[in-house]
Amino acid sequence: MFSGFDWRLAIAWRMPHAQDQEWVQDWFREGSQRPMLGSGFAWVVFASHRHRDEALHKMQALETDGRGIKYWDPSTGQHYPLNFGIPRCEPTNVRWDHLGLGICCRRWRFLAALLVWLLTAGLLATGIYVPYAEYVTGFLNEAGKFPQGFMMGLLGFLIGLTWWAMCMMIGVCLNVAGFQTIEDENLFVFIFFTIFCVAASAFNVYLTWYYTQETCGSTTPAAGLRA
C-alpha cells in the first residue's frame, strides 16, 4: 500500500546519516509511533467517463441494497463502509485513457502517429498537389496564362479539400499518439498544422513565381523602323 512512497525509502537508504535512515524506516514499521498516514481516499482511474459512470452506478446500487463494499481495519477489528463518488477536484485537461501507457509505448505510438501524418501528407502531395502543379505549369507553357474552366475549378476544389483532410488526419494522429494532456495535443496540432500551412503557402508562391517568370520571359519589346 506504500508503493507510491518507495522513492522516499530509496532516498533514505542513500542518506549518510544512520539516524535519518532509521527515521524513514520507522514510517513503515508496524506498531510505529510515527506511521505514514494516508488521506483516507483511494483513486481509481477508468478508461473513459462511460466506464466510470457505470461502475459508480453499480456501487451506489450495492450501497442502497446494503451490500456495499466494506473495509476491515485489522487494528480495531471493525468494518467501515467505502463510499464511492466523483472527486470534486477532477482535472479537465487529462486524457485518463492514456495514463496507463508506459514511456516506451507512448514513444512508439508517437512514432506511429508521425508516420500516419507523413503518409497522409505524401498522398495529398502526390495525388493532388503534383498533378495540379503539372497541369498549371503545362498550360502556362502552352498558352502563357493560368488555365480556366471546369478542370481548373475541379482541381481548385480538391486543393481546398486537402485542408479538411489534413485536419481530420491530425485528429486521428492525436488518438494514435496517446498524449496524456490536452496541452500536449494542442501543441501537436499547432506544430503539424503549421508545417502543412507553410508547405501549402510555399506551393502557391512557387506557382505565382513560375507564372511571373513565364509571363515576363514571353514578353518581348516590339520595335519599328521607319524609312
What does this structure look like?
This protein is mainly alpha-helical and 227 residues long. The protein folds into two domains: 3-92, no CATH class; 98-218, no CATH class. Helix content is 61%, strand content 3%. It has a two-stranded antiparallel ribbon. Strand 1 and strand 2 form a beta hairpin. The longest helix is centred in the middle third of the chain and has 41 residues, at 103-143. The radius of gyration is 33 Å and the shape is elongated. Mean pLDDT is 75; it is low at 1-7 and 219-227.
Mean pLDDT comes to 75
Strand content: under 5%
> What string, H for helix and E for strand, traces the elements in order?
HHHEEHHH
Q: For the report, how would you describe the main beta sheet?
A: 2 strands, antiparallel
Q: Radius of gyration over alpha carbons?
A: 33 Å
Keywords: Membrane, Transmembrane, Transmembrane helix
Transmembrane segments: 110-130, 150-175, 187-211
